[in-house]
Amino acid sequence: MFYPLFLNARLPAGGPKKAFVSELYKRISVHDLILFGVYSVNSKKEKCTYGRLVKECFNLFPKSFSFSEMPNWPDSRKLDRSLRSLRKKKMLIGDPKNFFNLTKLGKKSAEDIGKTFRQGRLGL
């Protein structure tokens, strides 16, 4: 992993949490951040349940997926509408009651987003 892209955040009970530097993701749409979150969970060989996706998105992109009045807590509402939109665009399949998987189109987008993070490009 390319560590200059990460900040060491608060250490939760489960171990260290790594987050992307906010300047790298603040210009990327929430849709794309969610796609990358699904990709990240799946790359760990885990099922991407709704709860797991909320956790992953918040851990990677805390400023985009937290409550504005309580920045240390994830706001799951920020995923709901975007997940429905991504399903309509055929970028992912699944639902909050089961789990989510990326389609070929969604996986390609997530990989492109990952390249953007690895290269550290800020101007999207």
Helix count equals 5
- What is the level-2 CATH architecture name? Orthogonal Bundle
Main-sheet strand order equals 1-2
What's the CATH H-level homologous superfamily?
Winged helix-like DNA-binding domain superfamily/Winged helix DNA-binding domain
Whole-Å distance between the termini? 21 Å
- Counted up, domains total 1
**Given this structure, which CATH class is correct?**
Mainly Alpha
Number of strands: 4
How would you explain this protein's 3D organization?
By secondary structure, this protein is mainly α. The protein has a single domain, classed as Arc Repressor Mutant, subunit A. The protein is 46% helix and 10% strand. The chain contains 5 helices and 4 strands; from the N terminus they run ββααααββα. It has helices at 22-25, 30-43, 50-60, 77-88, 104-119; strands at residues 6-8, 18-20, 92-94, 100-102. A two-stranded antiparallel ribbon has the order 1-2. The chain has a two-stranded antiparallel ribbon with strand order 3-4. Helix 2 (30-43) packs across helix 3, helix 2 crosses helix 4 and helix 2 crosses helix 5. The protein starts with 5 loop residues before the first strand and ends in a 5-residue tail after the last helix. Mean pLDDT is 82; it is low at 1-17.
Features:
124 residues; mainly alpha; Arc Repressor Mutant, subunit A; 5 helices; 4 strands; 46% helix; globular
